[in-house]
Specification:
Number of helices: 6
Strand content: 15-25%
Radius of gyration: 18 Å
Number of strands: 15
Helix content: 10-25%
Distance between the termini: 30 Å
Structural class: alpha+beta
Largest sheet: 9 strands, antiparallel
Order of helices and strands: EEHEHEHEEHHHEEEEEEEEE
Length: 274
């Protein structure tokens, strides 16, 4: 069943978005994300929830890769609100179209870059690649293996996550990445800006391609204050949303402005096949 497009008209109110010096977007009105014919109400994963637009098919990915993990991320039921670390709901002013089913810490630590750390770590933990779980903080690189002293239980993993996310920043996170050309984009790549005092990161969680080689992609994010990870809408193209068109230049998301030159890739995922 396809979601019916609903448009909420607010008489006498106008809405606009303004960019601050960091690239962050501030919205001038409250509302709810509009429905899309590309969204399946009952889909439980990224793959099942979001249809490929007409003429496009999913790019192939191998099993047990980070790309496969992201494409099959489980989602909360359609229409669910994202929640902050303190349990409060995040109002949805056409910001997100789905919420990833991944409980967060009760501490204010899983924000932007740390949400990406969480996704990568969950993938590596699921595949029992414990030795690859290691991230830079401001002062050092901390591995799960050394932190846990050989205890690879889920409880110890969560302790490690809290420890690292509490100490990581966008600049330290970016030290675990390398720049990537837009033409080589793949699922699992991120758009990252390490502006001070705060930056932002979004991650490519799925991608489709047509016969001409033109690509579209889906993005996910965490944000400040700490909150559940969301699949975000496309504010530039309501008919295509939540898919984004791959093209050089500005990449405007609901809460941040990137440039496509901000594309980066995790260094330790270089050897993974698409």
């Amino acid at each position: 069943m396809k979601r019916i497009l609903l448009i909420l008209v607010l008489t006498g109110l106008c809405s606009c978005n303004a960019l601050n010096s960091e690239g962050m977007l501030y919205s001038g009105a409250m509302g709810f994300a509009e429905g899309s014919p590309l969204v399946n109400n009952y889909g439980k994963t990224v793959l099942d929830r979001f249809d490929s637009p007409l003429g496009y098919t999913r790019v192939p990915v191998k099993q047990n890769t980070f790309a496969s993990f992201l494409r099959t991320l489980e989602l909360l039921p359609d229409g669910s609100m994202a929640h902050y670390y303190n349990g409060k709901s995040k109002l949805n002013d056409d910001i997100y179209v789905a919420v990833v089913d991944l409980p967060i810490s009760s501490k204010n630590i899983q924000m932007s870059a740390s949400s990406m750390i969480r996704l990568v770590s969950e993938y590596l933990f699921t595949n029992q690649e414990y030795d690859k779980i290691a991230f830079h903080t401001e002062n050092q690189k901390i591995s799960f293996a050394s932190f846990s002293n050989g205890d690879y239980s889920k409880a110890e993993f969560h302790k490690y996550m809290d420890f690292v996310m509490e100490r990581a920043s966008t600049p330290s996170f970016c030290s675990d990445l390398r720049p990537e050309k837009l033409e080589n984009i793949q699922i699992g790549d991120v758009f990252a800006q390490n502006n001070l005092p705060n930056g932002h990161v979004v991650i490519v969680v799925d991608m489709v391609e047509n016969k001409k080689g033109e690509k579209l992609f889906l993005l996910a994010q965490g944000f400040r204050p700490a909150q559940e990870i969301q699949i975000i809408s496309n504010p530039n193209n309501k008919e295509l949303s939540p898919w984004y068109q791959l093209k050089e230049g500005e990449l405007l998301t609901p809460e941040w402005r990137f440039m496509t030159s901000d594309l980066m890739r995790f260094r330790f995922l270089d050897n993974e096949s698409k």
